[in-house]
Amino acid sequence: MACLTLAGWYLLDPSAGMPPARPGPQALARDGSVMLQVEGGEFLMGTDDESVLFGHPRFLARVETFWIGRYEVTNRQFARFVEESGYQAQGRWRDYYHEGLDEHPVVCVTWKDAAAYCDWAGLRLPTEAEWEKAARGNDGRRYVWGNRWETETCNNWNLEREDRLALMAHFLRKRGTTPVGSFPESDSPYGCADMAGNVWEWTSTLFRPHPYRADDGREDPDSEESRVMRGASWYSVEKRCFNCAERIAGTPPSMFSHFVGFRVASSRAPEQGSPGPAGGSSR
Asked: What's the average model confidence in pLDDT over 232-254?
């Protein structure tokens, strides 16, 4: 196991020195998103697991306290945004919004679609460091629920649970998204749902090598470079995709897919009231 530096000491098992994740308060944002507070501080980010393709190496990262959506943004929420704002989406999200899918995550949205929604809601996309902290807590666990892979604990291509298959949107071979929060047993240490499976999620971060640094240009909101996506999807087969440290790239503005969505975040407690341009931002 690789050694990491923490407060000047070298730890053979750095997870032993990390405090347990402590779920914080929750609040309701203007767009209807349930927001969870995630404590700031150091945590283990990345991995040395050779099966993971893009999440190397493991290192100590730090984030400030932030808020993140408990659930992925749903079709119902995105439809309200489009109706009230008049926004013309780049992605083909309407093609995958069928009757009965109100509480399924919106899919086929580009990074710019997701960013536009966040601006309207007075929120933002999470950074990939925030996303990983919210997914795995402090201790460097492989999956949101622990270190052992469990096929039936999240929405993935190999899932065989009849009660969950019955909830799926039929996008491909009777496979697709499930309503947000359908796998409570896989909630993250902070209470976030579907951070393994359902849909890959856009983050605000440019796809650049680790270690993550928020001040090195990778959080440039105007860049056309590829952005990091996290969390795997219903279409994912390999268990390495569900490792909290795995990351893939999507290129704005053209990239969208029926297995890509997003969740919201904020640097401060979400504001109450109606969403819209007059409301400002919780960046």
From this structure: 94
pLDDT per position as a tens digit, 183-233: 999 999 999 999 999 999 999 999 999 999 999 999 999 999 999 999 999
Q: For 214-235, give the secondary structure using H, E and C.
A: CCCCCCCCCCCCCEEEECCCCC
Number of H helices, E strands in the chain: 4, 12
d(C-alpha 45, C-alpha 281), whole Å? 28
Task: Give the H/E segment covering residue 41.
Answer: strand 41-45
Report yes or no: 73 and 33 within 8 Å, Cβ to Cβ.
Answer: yes
pLDDT digits (tens, 9 = 90+) for 248-276: 999 877 899 999 999 999 999 987 767 87
Provide the residue range defining the domain that includes 156. Answer: 20-270
Instruction: Name which of 264, 259, 275, 282 is nearest 73 in CA terms.
Output: 264
Which residue type does 102 have? D
> In this structure, which long-range contacts are made by residues 209-212, counting pairs with CB atoms below 8 Å and at least 24 apart in sequence?
210/45, 210/46, 210/55, 210/56, 210/57, 210/59, 211/45, 211/46, 211/57, 211/59, 211/61, 212/45, 212/46, 212/61, 212/127, 212/128, 212/129
Domain presence at residue 210: yes
What's the chain's average pLDDT? 91
The domain spanning residue 259 has which CATH number?
Answer: 3.90.1580.10
Q: Is residue 5 part of a domain?
A: no
- Domain count for the chain, please give it: 1
Q: Is 283 part of any domain?
A: no
Using omega within 30 degrees of 0 as the cis cutoff, is the peptide bond preceding 57 cis? yes
Find out whether 227 and 128 touch, Cβ atoms under 8 Å.
no
The residues pairing with 74 across neighbouring beta strands, listed in sequence order, are 105
